[in-house]
């Protein structure tokens, strides 16, 4: 399979990951018993660097920050898929850097999350590593 196809597949997977993350990271199940804790996090405010904030606000803000970065990496993967193979071969810091980014994502998911983000991170990582290998093989 060509590197361009692998980058396009990666991009679509990352986009799906971003959508799932955005729709799901604030959802809770009453069976988890965290409603009271979340209520405390939502109403406990503090003043930092001129702003009143809550810990729940930090959680939501960081979650949306992750969404923005996921969307950007989807764009980068899509654009890598548009490049000629000889150009890709000259960009190892970008091709391998993107793959290493998702290796880190997989490690974080394995440590802190559950199967859906683990599966997405693993599939994206496999596609990006295969694409980087293919791209390097062209040089």
Q: How are the elements arranged and paired?
A:
Layout: H1 3-24, H2 35-43, E1 45-48, E2 51-54, H3 55-82, H4 85-88, H5 92-112, H6 115-137
Antiparallel strand pairs: 1-2
Helix fraction bin: over 70%
Cα-to-Cα separation, first versus last residue = 17 Å
Major sheet strand order: 1-2
Runs with pLDDT <50, length 5+? none
Can you count the beta strands?
2
Mean of all residue-level pLDDT scores: 95
Number of self-contained structural domains: 1
Q: What amount of the residues lies in strands? A: 5-15%
Could you give the order of the helices and strands? HHEEHHHH
Class derived from helix and strand content: mainly alpha
Count of DSSP helices? 6
Summarize the structure.
The chain is 77% helix and 6% strand. It contains six helices and two strands.
Could you please describe the fold and organization of this structure?
With 139 residues, the protein is mainly α. It has one domain (3-137). The chain has helices at residues 3-24, 35-43, 55-82, 85-88, 92-112, 115-137, and strands spanning 45-48, 51-54.
Keyword list:
139 residues; mainly alpha; two-stranded antiparallel sheet
């Amino acid at each position: 399979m060509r590197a361009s196809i692998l980058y396009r597949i990666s991009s679509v997977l990352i986009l799906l990951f971003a959508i799932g993350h955005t729709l799901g990271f604030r959802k809770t199940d009453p069976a988890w018993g965290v409603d009271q804790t979340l209520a405390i996090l939502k109403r406990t405010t503090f003043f930092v660097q001129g702003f009143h904030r809550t810990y729940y606000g930090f959680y939501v803000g960081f979650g949306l920050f992750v969404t923005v970065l996921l969307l950007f990496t989807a764009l980068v993967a899509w654009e890598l898929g548009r490049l000629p193979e000889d150009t890709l071969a000259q960009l190892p810091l970008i091709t391998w850097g993107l793959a290493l980014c998702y290796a880190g994502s997989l490690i974080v998911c394995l440590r802190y999350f559950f199967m859906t983000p683990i599966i997405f991170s693993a599939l994206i990582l496999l596609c990006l590593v295969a694409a980087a290998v293919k791209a390097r093989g062209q040089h």
